[in-house]
Amino acid sequence: MTENSTIPISFASVADRRAYHTAVIYLGTRYSYQKVRKMAESFAAALLDTGITSGQRVIIYVPNSIQWVVAWLGIQRAGGVCVPITPIYTPIDLAYIANDSDAEAIVCADTNFGYVKKVLPKTRIKQVVITKMAELLPAWKRLFGYLFDVIPKGKTILDDHTFLIGKLLATYANCTDTLPETTDSGSDIAEILYTGGTTKYPKGVPITHDLFLVSAKEQIQISEPLFPPQDNVIMANAPLFHVLGQTCSLATLLEGGTLLLQPKVNLDATFESIQRFKARTMIGVPMLYRMILEHDRLDQYHLGSVDYWFSGGDVLPVEVRKRWQKRFGKTIYQGYGATETCGGVAMCSTDIDNPPKSVGQAVASKSIKIVDPATLKPVETGKPGELVVSSESMVLNYLNKPEETAASFVELDGKKWYRTADVFSTDENGHLFFVDRTVDTIKHKGYRVSASEIEAVLQEHPAVVASCVIGVPDEKTGQRIKAYVVLKEDIKGITGYELIKWCRHSLVAYKIPQHIEFRDMLPKSKVGKLLRREIRDEEKRMQEQ
Known about the structure:
Helix content: 25-40%
Shape: globular
CATH superfamily of the domain at 445-544: ANL, C-terminal domain
Largest sheet: 14 strands, mixed
Distance between the termini: 58 Å
CATH class of the domain at 445-544: Alpha Beta
Number of strands: 26
Radius of gyration: 24 Å
Strand content: 25-35%
CATH topology of the domain at 445-544: GMP Synthetase, Chain A, domain 3
């Protein structure tokens, strides 16, 4: 990456080198770098002609698809700022983010147009670009899709401010030579990603071109000891609106690799794509790896082309890692990151034996400290403490949220640091080990108890598929430890007493749950992370009745 480079400049450079190589495979159709660049530049020309100017925010409200990639690259080529959001957001979420980001345009799926139309009067959005999920596929695929009714359809209304992306790309296909030079600085904002947390509303995180390019390069090149980055074919089972999907999947387009996309996770479709297109990498969350291991038709597919299995977004249970190693003879590599750090803070190297349970060592662009959450003073090696992170091109604030910014971004030793609110320990070689989130630590009988530790023990039981542990207020002990457990299908006869007995084999007495409640499912975020706060809120409401 050269100084003051931007995402459009970097992509154009790769597209020049790799013009006829496959950039994206969407639902079995290949799109070359030359084709993707042409579509992105046509879209940029269309945006500029419809009134989008440099610095304006444009929402991307579309599932993983070739259209998503074209929109993301095209918005930035036009000098705009991308605001990617999950396609399952409701009108309430959509209106909040549109107003918080000050967006003036939106790219949406036809199935979401009803929601967009509903919020238009409440926002500053003036331009709407609609895409149908099969719109950029070959005609014969669209025909079969519609004949067999497998393509979701939504009602749309076109007017002077509402357009179809396919028609825009056709209309402006010969206008790319008129695009202005890309003169934006690397310190300019490329996109705003929204992240959840302890607050009621999602927080906007401004990501600069510099930060994205450095982070993306590190996270894509981590697998270089296994194969060259330009030979990588990544099965992107993580949403592109999320930092995991962006820096570990989408970023391959800035290194010359190939991105495999499907609109939603379907295991058979994932297996078929890996087998057919010889994927070298798969990105997923821990729950996805567990689902793969338990899939009935797993033996019908050959997944041996994948050398780099990567798990992010949550802690990978030891039991899943061991089962994977036994089943495939390969390692699931872990990493740790946050939206505020543009993904990877630490990643497991692919050319060393990483310690069990480690999420890797800090990447070169990030400085880290393990500190006491109360004093922000460094703790001794091996002792748990809150992880704080700093980098040269780091995020310095949340959008429009000064109080949350002040709580999460602090100055230490003359530098700005992001407080992750996650508790880690580190060994003498710098390997990081996740302990818990600070807000998820249970205070029981004067002890600080890690909810994640108890969950990991429960999930090692052969009958347990998922668990969630919280502290319930108690006058005598401070908090009682309560576990919510989901059993595997067709498992019967397992009692709470048996699971408590199981915990006694691995946990000291004060860490053993006092209560076990069985559930059919547990609340998860859009990217598969366990939402303990929803369980806590539910328990609190029950206590107040």
